[in-house]
Amino acid sequence: MQEWLFPCNPNYYDVKGAFGSLNKINWKQNRDVLVGDTVYIYIGKPDQEIKYETKVIDVDLPRTSIDDSKFVKDGTTYVNHGRYMTLEFVKEFRDRELTYQDMVQNGLRTVQSQIKISDQLKFFINSRKNIGKHSQKKQYFFVFQNESYKDEKAGQYLWAPKSNQKKHSISHWKRMTEIKKDDIIFHSVNRKIKAISIAQTNCLSEDRPPELKETWTTAGWKVSSQYYELEEEFNISDHIEVLMKLQPDNNGPFNVNGNRKQGYLFSANKAMFDYIMEEVIKVQKNSSNRSILQELLEQQVDIEERLDQELVDGIDGLIEAYVNQPVDYKPQPEPKPQLDFLGKKSSYKRNKEVAIKALKRANYECEIDKSHPSFKRRTTKVNYTEPHHLIPMAKQGNFSYSLDVEANIVSLCSNCHNQIHYGADYKEMISKLHIKREKELTQAGIQIDLDTLIEYY
């Protein structure tokens, strides 16, 4: 699938108003865009920034089918255009997150017409989209592509067979199934790391792409991944002693002699990522390349996880003031909380008072199971439970109204709180909480299906 950048003149069309009221809009079509492509909407002066990510769900329409006439300010270039497509809202970017100046420094040449996005600009946009995502579950992989790199890089994917000639599953191919969206992958060709990529999908079952060398089977595993090709490659031989010490004890890419293991995909880890990225950044000659890689490195420090823990720790001394207050919460849409910036990182504020009231609403009991054992707080003789945002605050940019509301904050015992983040049964827990809170979330202007909610974890 392709990624596109479409300009919007705010003097002609109020796209902010349109997406504030509609989930889908028609757009005039000048290029051969396909269903499933991604379209980023760039708003011209005075904004001069990408504001929306959309998905193409219909093309080559002879006329418009969605009434957005109240948002058309000057229809002379739009009405009776003769060829339209339908765009579905995916994400709203924060103000100043993807500015014209930033994009010019990262491969943008023009925004005068509908354009296909370059690889460099794709990588920059995706790196910005990853800001604020939880990195606790992020995984790292090392792929050897001596023969397949050219074709797989051109197609922006990884592919491996499901079995060998004897129909046996091979571990380094099956490891493809471990890759999740947003995982980091190092691409090695002839003892050099040529590219770094970010997985755009979970692993899918898909037949061998026709451009790849024919194998004994067509059945395979595929992951779409956004490649960023390094200007200056990383020579593995120069760093092999360090990499051997840092690699995982199990399924790492190198054997005891420092040679690559025979196979396709192997496990890496955060320590390898940090070391390789720091060394790669040092040798990049182009300042924009260095800044993109530096931003990717900095994103692995998870500000969202730290803020969630600060909320849990920070409410203890404040709970007593609310113990005897009545519970009178009625769900309704609330404005988004303030966005704070720390360098290139950003996050949405958590309101301690709201979290405390959410615990009181639940009578300081675990909402997975009220019978779960707890203990009394030292400061106030109520059960110890912890506030948890069912829809993570890191996803606030995807929603029009605040996620920091009591409808979205559940009370969990400390065991369940850890389990929902790191345990094997997290899907069942999320499903149970989603059923309990779906009505209140809707009343608060927050709509989310179970599959999407589970993906957020």
Automatic annotation (TrEMBL):
Query: What is a GO molecular function of this protein?
Result: endonuclease activity
Transmembrane ranges, per UniProt, are none
Recorded hits in CDD domains, A to Z, give: HNHc
- Any one Pfam family match given in the protein's UniProt record, by short name: HNH
Q: Where is the HNH domain?
A: 383-421
Protein's name in the database: HNH domain-containing protein
Q: What is the lineage of its organism?
A: Bacteria, Bacillati, Bacillota, Bacilli, Lactobacillales
